[in-house]
Amino acid sequence: DAKTTQPPSMDCAEGRAANLPCNHSTISGNEYVYWYRQIHSQGPQYIIHGLKNNETNEMASLIITEDRKSSTLILPHATLRDTAVYYCIVRVKAGNTGKLIFGQGTTLQVKP
Amino acid sequence: EAGVAQSPRYKIIEKRQSVAFWCNPISGHATLYWYQQILGQGPKLLIQFQNNGVVDDSQLPKDRFSAERLKGVDSTLKIQPAKLEDSAVYLCASSLRDTHSYNEQFFGPGTRLTVL
Q1: Which of B42, B56, B110 minimises the CB distance to A102?
Q2: Is the pLDDT of residue B102 over 90?
């Protein structure tokens, strides 16, 4: 079972920041938080991941709370092309690697 | 750089028939994954290969599903015989590295299977 809880849907105005929350209260100390998104009729796309520090790349920022029980993905200037299902995933450790267990995600609708 | 290729894109079969899907990962990617995505749900991992060896197939219904990656490059996923509940999108993904600290998976466009 997925170890994360996300709101089923959110709206955001084009050009504004989109803040997508995720709860992962049972996360273990060595488990990473990953974010993927899936645009309609496409395969999922990696966005960002982190362990305990905040992370930023060209697509988004990831803010992880100090207790690591929740995180927020920030799309700084949302565009219509950011409309997608966003998955917050705690990557479960499996041997020397890990496994992505997808939940149902948050459907983000960016509106003009 | 070419992405993950999958074929066919769409397949319609009747229950109890057989079907096979093909995946060609990004060149040089050692790890290959097959996922099943039922409408309205997130993808579910069916099987993971590292080169041509199976790393995880715990979620693969082995009585009807099989997968192989004989030369450590492309892969096929087969369903025999298909059931109505197998209707889903079958996604293939690959990754260059799969360590505990880093795993960026690149997904193909998927094959949409409809079982009538």
Answers
A1: B42
A2: no
